[in-house]
């Protein structure tokens, strides 16, 4: 008889957990209050950067280790999905305006101090920038290039995971409000659904059970810019925050900032929109003629130290606090959890994020 798993939360992590456990022979039930599209999930509001080395700017070493592991797993994950996903492995380019060059140098020092290998970052001048991104060469004379980083379309990924789930023997309960998550049980109204394991992947929806969890606001603009030709994510260093511009198919670009300390999920403010648009224009003047397709806002779940946590109990395991690293580290978290509940072993990367923090 198959082992049974109830997964609560169908963001990117919940969907990947469902696909992986199904592949391992588990009988899986997935619950979420959102629609299959997942527009209410923070996974819908993401840039999809697989950039473990750029994250050395501010993240702890364990995030880089999880990200490097996951980066190598993403191609295999994408191959097993029912539909294609926009995915590029062209690295990341980091630049700064002359007045903000100290921020670029700070990132360079931070990476050199913590780099797991010597070739993850390249100092680039105008000729190399012209080779990488010809349209930026006249505006930026120096920068940093991270050749081993990647990016994908997060919404493509959500759609492809959803289609994969529909084609598998996975019970998907959309539009379902879960009343409580318990050991070996998912409670919906007056009904308890019992499982060998329950996986809580609710993000901020788990705040009643994880009181130290906070929301970190993410704001993105989607621009259609036919006059802009960028191949890879471009980060613009700034004393207050880093701005990123991430290409999608068809001359669409996602423009956002790394993190805003707020749990407000209201619409983007005029100030934020102006800052993002102005920053994009200073990177490439072609954004002046771009069309604003959409603004997207959501809150990512973060613990006080911004590290993810896998919190096991009898018949219940909570995976949360992915902060702004969800797409970067999701494959690693899936493997850690599956090894623990399916094989009874502890993955080497679990140290520091599993059972290391008290509720």
Give structural attributes:
globular; alpha+beta; six-stranded mixed β-sheet; 7 helices; 20 strands; 27% strand
Quick description:
The protein has 359 residues and is of the alpha+beta class. The chain has 7 helices and 20 strands. The protein is 27% helix and 27% strand.
Would you mind describing this structure in some detail?
The protein has 359 residues and is α+β, with helices and mostly antiparallel strands. The chain has seven helices and 20 strands. The protein has an eight-stranded mixed beta sheet with strand order 6-7-5-15-16-17-14-18, sandwiched between helices. Helix 1 packs parallel to helix 5 and helix 1 runs parallel beside helix 7. The radius of gyration is 20 Å and the shape is globular. The two termini are 34 Å apart.
SSE order and pairing:
Layout: E1 4-8, H1 12-23, E2 27-31, E3 49-50, H2 61-79, E4 87-88, E5 92-95, H3 101-114, E6 122-125, H4 126-132, E7 142-146, E8 150-152, H5 154-167, E9 170-173, E10 180-182, E11 185-188, E12 191-194, E13 197-200, E14 214-224, E15 234-236, E16 243-247, E17 252-257, H6 270-283, E18 291-302, E19 309-313, E20 316-320, H7 326-343
Parallel strand pairs: 1-2, 1-13, 2-9, 5-15, 13-20
Antiparallel strand pairs: 3-8, 4-8, 5-7, 6-7, 10-11, 11-12, 14-17, 14-18, 15-16, 16-17, 19-20
Helix pairs in contact: 1-5, 1-7, 2-7
């Amino acid at each position: 008889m198959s082992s049974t798993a109830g997964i609560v939360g169908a963001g990117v992590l919940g969907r990947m957990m469902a696909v992986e456990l199904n592949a391992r022979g588990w009988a899986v039930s997935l619950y979420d209050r959102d629609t299959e599209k997942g527009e209410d999930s923070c996974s819908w509001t993401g840039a999809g950067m697989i950039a473990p080395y750029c994250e050395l700017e501010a993240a702890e070493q364990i995030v880089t280790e999880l990200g490097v592991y996951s980066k190598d797993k993403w191609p295999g994950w994408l191959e097993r999905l029912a539909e294609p996903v926009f995915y590029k492995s062209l690295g990341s380019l980091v630049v700064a305006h002359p007045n903000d060059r100290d921020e670029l140098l700070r990132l360079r020092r931070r990476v050199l101090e913590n780099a797991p290998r010597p070739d993850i970052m390249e100092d680039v001048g105008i000729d190399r920038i012209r080779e990488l991104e010809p349209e930026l060469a006249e505006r930026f004379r120096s920068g940093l290039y991270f050749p081993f980083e990647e990016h994908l379309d997060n919404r493509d990924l959500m759609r492809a995971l959803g289609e994969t789930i529909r084609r598998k023997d996975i019970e998907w309960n959309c539009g379902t409000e879960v009343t409580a998550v318990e050991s070996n049980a998912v409670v919906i109204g007056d009904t308890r659904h019992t499982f060998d394991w329950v996986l809580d992947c609710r993000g901020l929806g788990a705040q009643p059970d994880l009181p130290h969890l906070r929301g970190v606001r993410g704001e993105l603009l989607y621009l259609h810019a036919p006059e802009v030709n960028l191949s890879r994510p471009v980060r613009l260093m700034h004393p207050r925050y880093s701005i990123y511009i991430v290409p999608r198919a068809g001359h669409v670009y996602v423009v956002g900032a790394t993190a805003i300390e707020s749990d407000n999920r209201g619409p983007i403010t005029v100030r934020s929109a102006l800052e993002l648009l102005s920053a994009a224009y200073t990177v490439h003047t072609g954004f002046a003629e771009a069309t604003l397709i959409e603004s997207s806002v959501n809150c990512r779940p973060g613990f006080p130290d911004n590290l993810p946590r896998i919190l096991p109990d009898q018949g219940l395991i909570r995976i949360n606090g992915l902060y702004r690293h969800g797409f970067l580290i999701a494959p690693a978290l899936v493997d850690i959890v599956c090894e623990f509940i399916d094989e009874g072993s502890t993955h080497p990367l679990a140290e520091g994020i599993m059972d290391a923090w008290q509720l």
